[in-house]
């Protein structure tokens, strides 16, 4: 699951980061942030998506005409549902969203998986801890996500309460970072 | 009322999708990419990016990004929040008549909006950019100019600290030569675009001189040696500094608390009405008009628009419009999100937090949670 994104990240440090875990990354730890800077790869999120196994999300992004967004300056944190996650949608739902007549809805769905800025898994963990168990995350869709912990895992809940667990995380690209999730999140 | 979209309703949408096909001439469109825009950059000291438009009405455009340091603490909040015409929830909003019906609800809607915005401010910033109106709705607006609703209606505006306020729009503005009551009551831009467009090439009306744009617009469109910006009656006006004539205008895209109503691929961007290059300054080096495409901002994104047919070809950047100097940090920004390359310089301390939004890094006071300054432009 995680190997593809890590390899796509084209950085050895990204490889180590993809295992998840609350690494260091901010808040006074300059040494750690320097390590992040050194890890910044040359590829964009769009490059990584193009080379990844997550074909469903890639096709959705292309259909929504948003590939240039992920190839642009960013910076974004992109939550990428796995193909399996899309398989978990109701029968016909994704096919319906991929039709030209549903582009407005598809755009809303994709943008719900794009967050402003670069948020590492460790940043999420810290925000959850500082927020007494939860952190609210703005998305480019306008609706929010709520992040909580479930044991060692970080779980994201959409406004309907549906949850997605962050899997391989912190694949770093020139214009942001990518986390994989195991369910498709739905905006209100 | 917000409609919660469940997975089941997605399925329902999927089943209904064919019936919606090609509505309003949409649906064609292509995918992203397209011919790359030709961009000419200048470097040094955060200097201007110069983009040369080609084709019809080509003109030289200079984006003065200025010295990033000089931006510090200069942009105060303020501006107005205007109503967008919305349908139901994002996924439920597939029926245009429903959208229009909601726009007609009148007084109770204002109460609802005020409540919604207040709740949103308590919960998170959550005022979101919404389209004021699509071009196809302008005709309806023009028809509605004859509507005379003399009752005072309230409109949500943001004060200098971006706190929501309620203001009696109709009586206040119309008396001063602003909004016709019928339009103000509907919380739409109170000047029809056809009327606003007539201001292009004329001297900016006196009533707009003191109307500085909302804070995030000021960040996106900083005054330059060539232009300055003013807001009025639902629009942002670009004014030529030399002759004080209006040289372009665009809607002040609306904010709401649930979702961003993007233009989507295959939809028509109102390029005929809003013809000037309006890409926010920080992004101009990346998105200059080309022989094949216009690049335009609208409703939370920058779009690649086909010169030939005016349809959105791709969405090239998403803008949140969430942070502005003088405003409280929204709850949606609890997590540190500064780009990796800048984390060695801007990391949270007990005295200052840093957050990224739309190409800029902002400094936040941890005690008050007020955004204190724009400290760096990244794009």
Outline the structure in words.
- The complex is a heterodimer of chains A (about 190) and B (about 375).
- Chain A has helices at about 1-10, 10-15, 30-40, 45-50, 55-65, 65-70, 85, 95, 105-110, 120-130; strands at about 75-80, 115, 135-140, 145-150, 155, 165, 170-175, 175-180.
- Chain A is an alpha+beta fold.
- Chain A has one domain (about 1-180): FAS1 domain (Roll), CATH 2.30.180.10.
- A four-stranded mixed sheet of chain A has the order 2-1-8-7.
- The model of chain A is unreliable at about 1-40 (pLDDT under 50).
- Chain B is about 20% helix and about 20% strand.
- Chains A and B meet through helix 3, helix 6, helix 8, helix 9 and strand 2 of A and helix 1, strand 13 and strand 14 of B.
Which key terms come to mind for this protein?
heterodimer, A: 188 residues, alpha+beta, FAS1 domain, four-stranded mixed sheet, 10 helices, 8 strands, B: 379 residues, three-stranded antiparallel sheet
**Total of DSSP H or I helical runs spanning 4+ residues of chain A:** 10
Q: What is the annotated CATH architecture of chain A?
A: Roll
Structural class of chain A: alpha+beta
The main sheet of chain B comes to: 3 strands, antiparallel
Low-confidence stretches of chain A: 1-40
Helix fraction of chain A, binned, reads 25-40%
Mean pLDDT of chain A: 81
Oligomeric state of the chains present here: heterodimer
- Low-confidence spans of chain B: pLDDT under 50, at least 5 residues? 1-188
Query: Would you identify the CATH H-level superfamily of chain A?
Result: FAS1 domain
Distance between the termini of chain A: 29 Å
Number of strands of chain B: 16
Give the number of domains of chain B: 2
Shape of chain B: globular
User: N- to C-terminal separation of chain B?
Assistant: 37 Å
Helical amount of chain B = 10-25%
Main sheet strand line-up of chain A = 2-1-8-7
For the secondary structure, the number of strands of chain A is: 8
Please write the string of helix (H) and strand (E) elements of chain A: HHHHHHEHHHEHEEEEEE
Strand order of the largest sheet of chain B: 3-5-6
């Amino acid at each position: 699951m995680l190997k593809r994104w890590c390899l796509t990240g084209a950085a050895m440090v990204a490889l180590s980061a993809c295992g998840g875990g609350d690494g260091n990354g901010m808040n006074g730890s300059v040494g750690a942030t320097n390590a992040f800077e050194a890890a910044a790869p040359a590829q964009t999120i769009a490059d990584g998506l193009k080379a990844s196994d997550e074909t469903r999300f890639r096709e959705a992004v292309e259909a929504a005409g948003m590939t240039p967004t992920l190839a642009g300056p960013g910076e974004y944190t992109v939550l990428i549902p796995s193909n399996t996650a899309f398989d978990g949608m109701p029968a016909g739902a994704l096919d319906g969203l991929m039709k030209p007549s549903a582009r407005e809805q598809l755009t809303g769905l994709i943008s719900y998986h794009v967050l402003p800025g670069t948020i590492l898994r460790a940043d999420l963990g810290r925000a959850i801890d500082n927020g007494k168990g939860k952190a609210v995350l703005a998305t480019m869709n306008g609706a929010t996500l709520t992040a909580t912990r479930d044991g060692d895992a970080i779980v994201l809940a959409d406004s309907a309460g549906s949850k997605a667990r962050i899997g391989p995380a912190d694949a770093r690209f020139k214009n942001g970072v990518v986390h994989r999730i195991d369910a498709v999140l739905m905006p209100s | 009322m917000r409609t919660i979209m469940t997975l089941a309703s997605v399925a329902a949408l999927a089943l209904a999708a064919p019936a919606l096909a090609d509505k309003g001439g949409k649906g064609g469109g292509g995918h992203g990419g397209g011919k790359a825009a030709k961009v000419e950059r200048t470097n040094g000291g955060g200097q201007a990016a110069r983009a040369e438009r080609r084709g019809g009405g080509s003109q030289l455009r200079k984006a003065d990004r200025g010295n990033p340091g000089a931006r510090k603490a200069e942009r105060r909040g303020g501006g107005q929040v205007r109503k967008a015409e919305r349908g139901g929830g994002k996924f439920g909003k597939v029926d245009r008549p429903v959208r229009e019906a909601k726009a007609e609800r009148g007084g109770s809607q204002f109460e609802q909006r005020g409540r919604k915005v207040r709740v949103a401010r308590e919960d998170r910033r959550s005022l979101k950019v919404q389209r004021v109106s699509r071009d196809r709705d302008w005709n309806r607006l023009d028809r509605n100019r004859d509507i005379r609703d003399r009752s005072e209606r309230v409109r949500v505006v943001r004060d200098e600290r971006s706190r929501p306020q309620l203001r009696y729009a109709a009586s206040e503005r119309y008396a001063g030569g602003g909004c016709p009551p019928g339009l103000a009551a509907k919380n739409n831009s109170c000047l029809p675009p056809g009327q606003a467009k007539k201001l292009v090439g004329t001297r900016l009306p006196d009533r707009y001189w003191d109307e500085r744009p909302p804070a995030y617009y000021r960040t996106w469109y900083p005054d330059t040696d060539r232009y300055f910006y003013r807001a009025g009656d639902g629009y942002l006006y670009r004014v030529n500094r030399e002759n004080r004539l209006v040289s372009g205008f665009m809607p002040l895209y609306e904010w709401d608390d649930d979702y961003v109503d993007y233009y989507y691929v295959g939809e028509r961007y109102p390029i005929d009405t809003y013809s000037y290059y309006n890409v926010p300054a920080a992004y101009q080096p990346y998105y200059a008009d080309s022989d094949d495409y216009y690049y335009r901002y609208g409703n939370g994104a920058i779009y690649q628009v086909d010169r030939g047919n005016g349809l959105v070809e791709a969405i090239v950047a998403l803008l949140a419009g969430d942070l502005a100097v003088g405003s409280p940090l929204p709850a949606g920004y609890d997590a540190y999100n500064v780009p990796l390359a800048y984390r060695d310089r801007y990391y949270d301390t007990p005295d200052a937090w840093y957050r990224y939004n739309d190409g800029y890094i902002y400094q936040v006071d941890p005690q008050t949670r007020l955004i204190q300054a724009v400290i760096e432009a990244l794009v």
